[in-house]
Amino acid sequence: LSVTSAEDPVIMSNIRQNLREKHARHVADLRAYYDSEIQSLKQQLEASQRTASSEDLKNINQNIFCDLFLLNRCDQLDAALDEASARIKALENKNNMLEKQVADWRERFCAVSDTSKVLQERLEEMRTSNKEKDNTISRLKSRLKDLEEAFEKAYKLSDNKNARLKEENKMFQNLLGEYESLGKEHERVKDTLNATENKLLDANTEISDLKR
User: Fold this and answer.
1) Which of 48, 54, 125, 203 is the most exposed place for a label (fewest CB within 10 A)?
2) Tell me: the pLDDT tens digits for 142-169?
3) Is 68 within 8 Å of 38 (Cβ atoms)?
4) 160 DSSP assignment
5) How many angstroms separate the Cα of 78 from the Cα of each of 19, 21, 72, 150?
6) What is this structure's pTM?
7) Contact 189, 133 (CB under 8 A)
8) Are 45 and 65 within 8 A, CB to CB?
9) What does UniProt give as the signal peptide span (predicted)?
10) Closest CA to 23 of 77, 88, 92, 90
11) Alpha-carbon dihedral 187, 193, 195, 196, rounded to 10 degrees
12) DSSP assignment, residue 49?
């Protein structure tokens, strides 16, 4: 048998079952044989009891004693076989229980691995989105700075350009509101990203525990 076949519980169970059946047949054949021999010797003893010499009777008695001893030995072997069969049955039950536990842990491990994979994908997506939002905020900051500089420049150039300044101020306020809105959205995305990273860390910890 190969190493893989020898480690297969189904193959080992079949081998043990075949050995038990073979041993049981062998013991039954021995019992039948010795029962037949004892019966034959008893018949011979009865037939030759009147005519046999004392030496013959002694040999016959010795043969009967040997046969009885072998029959008793067969009974002992049969009892040992029953005990071994019970022990094998108990071990097989325990092995089946352990196999079920391994299957349950394997399913749980697969489920946690799938969850971890999904969380990892979501985390990557959120990181990409957060990076894009950071870039947008950077562009808005640059634009805001440009507008501030333009506002200051326009204010210094002429006090008569109030309408233009009001319009630019309105644009500035709108841009500032958009910037604040994006800032809040950015903070919310950061919080969500942190929560997702914590979940991923918990999932990886559980995977490490399941692997151990």
Assistant:
1) 54
2) 888 888 888 777 767 766 667 767 777 8
3) yes
4) S
5) 14, 12, 10, 106
6) 0.37
7) yes
8) no
9) none
10) 77
11) 160
12) T
Q: How far apart are CA 37 and CA 2, in angstroms?
A: 43
State which amino acid sits at residue 150: A
Contact status, residue 81 vs residue 23, Cβ threshold 8 Å: yes
Indicate the Cα dihedral angle 82, 84, 88, 90, nearest 10°.
70
- Give the pLDDT of residue 4: 46
Q: pLDDT band for position 70 (50/70/90)?
A: confident
* φ and ψ at residue 53, rounded to 5 degrees: -80, 170
pLDDT in tens, 38-62: 788 777 767 766 555 566 667 766 7
Measured between alpha carbons, how far is 9 from 21 in angstroms, rounded to an integer? Answer: 18
CB of 175 closer than 8 Å to CB of 139:
no
Q: How many CB atoms lie within 10 A of CB 74?
A: 20
Sign, CA dihedral 152-154-158-164, equals negative
Structure token pair of residue 113: 């691995």
